[in-house]
Amino acid sequence: MKFCRLIHSILLIRATNFGVSGKTYMFRISNVGLSTSLNFRIQGHKMKLVEVEGSHVIQNLYDSLDVHVGQSITILVTLDQPPKDYYIVASTRFTKTVLTATAVLHYANSNAPVSGPVPAAPANGFDWSMEQARTYRWNLTSNAARPNPQGSFHYGTITPTKTIVLANSAPLINGKLRYAVNGVSYINPDTPLKLADYLNIPGVFSTNSLSELPSGRAATLATSVMATSLHDFIEVVFQNNENTMQAWHLDGYDFWVVGFGSGQWTPDKRKSYNLVDALTRHTTQVNPH
């Protein structure tokens, strides 16, 4: 697992037939960076969140929205303000140096350019961002899964097969800074994993190299593979003990993000899980500590 720093911020807006007063427009915002969250806002306008990574959500109104690495959201914006030009802003979050990119929302009959300071992102940082994430709820009346005896959308009633706790860290290994999960920093084998698995080639990887719980052992290098079985239903806890935001992506699958919390995870945290209308996601942010 390797992370890179965002070195610049780009906001692209294609303005076609924009700016008619009273009309509602849809924006799709994607964070295609590698390590940095961003905050998106439109001066003087409320944003109605309608979709997050393919899930229709309860349509709450927001002044600004945090979009984390690898995530996409859809908003509706009604042009209900006095006709003039307004800032559209994207800025980095949780970085020492805040990088900002702007565009202009132009009303069709505007005679006034953008004015005033560029609207600032929320100042409360990680706690504010986590509270906002908790407000993202599946809209069960709009395009949600319908009753199906074999449908796994009843995720809150399924007993997990196992619990896996994955803790990220940034250790020095052989004098080099690397990232690790449960004390193991991944290295690519010469033989592709799928080929080694299909042909039963020994020595390429071991399913014992990565423990299902943080071990506390010294960090090592390995081609880490974790074994599960077909139809397993797994509870995964992402434990971030670092000082920076982390992003986790599950390739080829989606999952329900049922809770965010602070401190070390314990089984008692399950009491706060959202087991009714949590979103299905492909990527989730994990706040520091």
TrEMBL record:
| Name the UniProt record assigns to this protein | Plastocyanin-like domain-containing protein
Q: Plastocyanin-like domain spans which residues? A: 20-109, 190-288
GO molecular function of the protein, one example?
A: copper ion binding
Keyword Transport found: no
Keyword annotations: Glycoprotein, Signal
What family does this belong to? Belongs to the multicopper oxidase family.
**The organism's lineage?**
Eukaryota, Viridiplantae, Streptophyta, Embryophyta, Tracheophyta
A Pfam entry, by short name: Cu-oxidase
Its signal peptide is 1-22
PANTHER family in alphabetical order? MULTI-COPPER OXIDASE, OS07G0119400 PROTEIN
Q: Which Gene3D superfamilies match?
A: Cupredoxins - blue copper proteins
Q: Where are the transmembrane segments?
A: none
Q: Which SUPFAM superfamilies match?
A: Cupredoxins
Q: What InterPro entries does this protein's entry cite?
A: Cu-oxidase_2nd, Cu-oxidase_C, Cu-oxidase_fam, Cupredoxin
